[in-house]
């Protein structure tokens, strides 16, 4: 009988892909099958996120609960970014944890599994050319890493300390992986990296041909049978004209762009070391909309970064009113260890919460306004997921989530859908062709 693996994945899409890599290794080399029932698991993995403080606090209470529920003899492993930055402290605080595996050491999963109390958290470890076994949680959409780590030093961000320096995965390996996923039925690929449009900055092999992100997109779009390319996250600083033009004119690139703003105030952006100003950001949005009028734009915003004045915050709201983002991920600033901003005096928490609420209610108004344009429009939808009550959901090219009545036969298919009911995050429609 095969051994059972229960895996919980927190955080970003990179963690989702790291989990797929670990599942693949454990299936192929160690004979594990996944289970959603914690009580029958022989191995419990938590793939953690450390970008904000809350999930880190939650980790230890969750570990305690898992330890109580687990079956006799089951192992618990902590992986991901919190594993990278807390390392052996995790085993000190939770001695029943069997091993700790950092976000840049995913390929060592078999190794740590057989060593009690192993801690592998080397952030200089280079996995950029490691040939992982093949496992995908969705046959329709393939996540593909294009780089590991991040070379930026945004003063609020812990990621460079948990995922290490940026190394690009050789383009020929990415093209190979994408072609294989397409052969196996995926019509969409989703490229992943902390800073995707900085691709090609550094390869493990210093003599590797200098291929930039725009060129990588061109090479990938030649794959026959591949219909859609998405990516996250690009950095506004690296959005040059060549990249925007390729984005606009390449029919395989989905017309949805994530542009993490973080703040609308040039002063705060400078304190965050983001490398661009409010004016540059607005200029890039204008250029993007000029080249590609149908584009949808999403963003990340942090409120109450240390030193953010009322006027600074107003600049953020001003950018929101001007851009009218289609989606916003907004966060209260959370001080993180090993970052430059860690020691700066915090803004009063009640004020921070009030700003977050104000920002989110402005965004709700913007979304209600934006959604109106979708009523009765017909869009091509790629169906990926079964939802409740006999609905199937998918996305338009511009990343709008749409559900229609239907069943499995629609999965992995493209259909033209007329939007009959609009919503802030999901629309309902009817298939017309
Ligand atoms: N590479 C990505 C960022 C990854 S972290 C980029 O350039 O955007 C994902 C998001 O978490 C960030 O965009 C930011 O909005 C948020 N975030 C990161 N550190 C944070 C912190 N210390 N406090 C609050 N939010 C944070
Ligand atoms: Fe973090 Fe900035 Fe890199 S937000 S992941 S340091 S681009």
Please report which band the strand proportion falls in: under 5%, 5-15%, 15-25%, 25-35%, 35-45% or over 45%.
Answer: 15-25%
The overall number of domains is 4
Compute the separation of the termini in Å: 46 Å
CATH class of the largest domain: Alpha Beta
CATH topology of the largest domain: Transcription Regulator spoIIAA
Sheet/helix structural class: alpha/beta
Strand order of the largest sheet: 2-1-3-4-5-6
Biggest sheet details: 6 strands, parallel
Percentage of residues assigned to helices: 25-40%
> Which regions contain 5 or more consecutive residues with pLDDT less than 50?
none
**Strand segment count:** 19
Rounded Rg: 22 Å
User: What coarse outline follows from CA principal-axis ratios?
Assistant: globular
Small-molecule binders here are: S-adenosyl-L-homocysteine, FE3-S4 cluster
Total DSSP helices: 13
Look at the structure and give the mean pLDDT. Answer: 97
